[in-house]
Amino acid sequence: MKIALITGVSRKEGIGYATAEQLGLQGFRIIVAARQLNQAEALAQDLSKLGIDASALHMDLLDRDSIRIAAKHVKEEFPKLDVLINNASLMLSSSATVQEKDMDELNREFETNITGTWYVTQQFYPLLVASGHGRIVNISSGAGSYADPDFGIINFPGFRLSELGLYTLGAYALTKLALNGLTIKMGKDFKADHVLVNAVCPGFTATRPGFDAIGGRPVSESVDGIIWAATLPDDGPTGQFFRDRKPLPW
Ligand SMILES: NC(=O)c1ccc[n+]([C@@H]2O[C@H](COP(=O)([O-])OP(=O)(O)OC[C@H]3O[C@@H](n4cnc5c(N)ncnc54)[C@H](OP(=O)(O)O)[C@@H]3O)[C@@H](O)[C@H]2O)c1
């Protein structure tokens, strides 16, 4: 039985839940993690109703003890982990410009998206190695690319949503840029253990109210590239950046 852990599964509309559902329907044993355990538990129950073997885990990326404890629980229950989807991510006050940005918020975003993701990966790494063919998918964004024509750091002009204000994707984009760099480093370091790791942009996805009206696509379309990266063959790519199974410019 193959086992997959997905972080940041707190909402049914989110990319994390859709990824869990798709992997579950492919026969994976699913562990969904969220910072509010009751939310992950409710979603694990929804997965179970689809015939998927699923359980929930408390994990807050800003709380290293919770990550260590979560890894200990999984190690006690399972001898290995086949897939880790680093989906959890924080984007605060996206309306802030460089000049307006609050430095404590900035630190929380980096602490979640980089330090937290890094620490989760460290803690679950021995289980991924134990599977003999571990796969890690770091959920990134075209916003963390320099050259993405729509959302890349050079090209993205920002957009305005009436209820949410101006989206500049400033600090968030820089955390995803760093995540992409971390993916390259992980790819090199993990190769000897046959653990493949790639960054995947799901594309602009309608996971929030109003996103569909400005071009966000259905979540079902966005998860295909994530599932592909999670189930790569042993000679598949590592340390790369993809969207919809195709390489994305850094
Ligand atoms: N939607 C898009 O257009 C889009 C585009 C490109 C990339 N992405 C990426 O796709 C991933 C999923 O995004 P989404 O659109 O599906 O939104 P989402 O449902 O808000 O997913 C983000 C998840 O991260 C969790 N999270 C935040 N801080 C956390 C912490 N300290 N510890 C643990 N979990 C934490 C959130 O939990 P709470 O509910 O508790 O806050 C939520 O479950 C993210 O990595 C995002 O950057 C999305």
Automatic annotation (TrEMBL):
The keyword ATP-binding does not apply. The keyword Aminoacyl-tRNA synthetase does not apply. It comes from the Bacteria. Pfam families: adh_short. One of its GO terms (molecular function) is oxidoreductase activity. Signal peptide: none annotated. Keywords: Oxidoreductase. Belongs to the short-chain dehydrogenases/reductases (SDR) family. PANTHER family: 5-KETO-D-GLUCONATE 5-REDUCTASE, ALCOHOL DEHYDROGENASE, PUTATIVE (AFU_ORTHOLOGUE AFUA_3G03445)-RELATED. This is NADP-dependent 3-hydroxy acid dehydrogenase YdfG. It comes from Chitinophaga sancti.
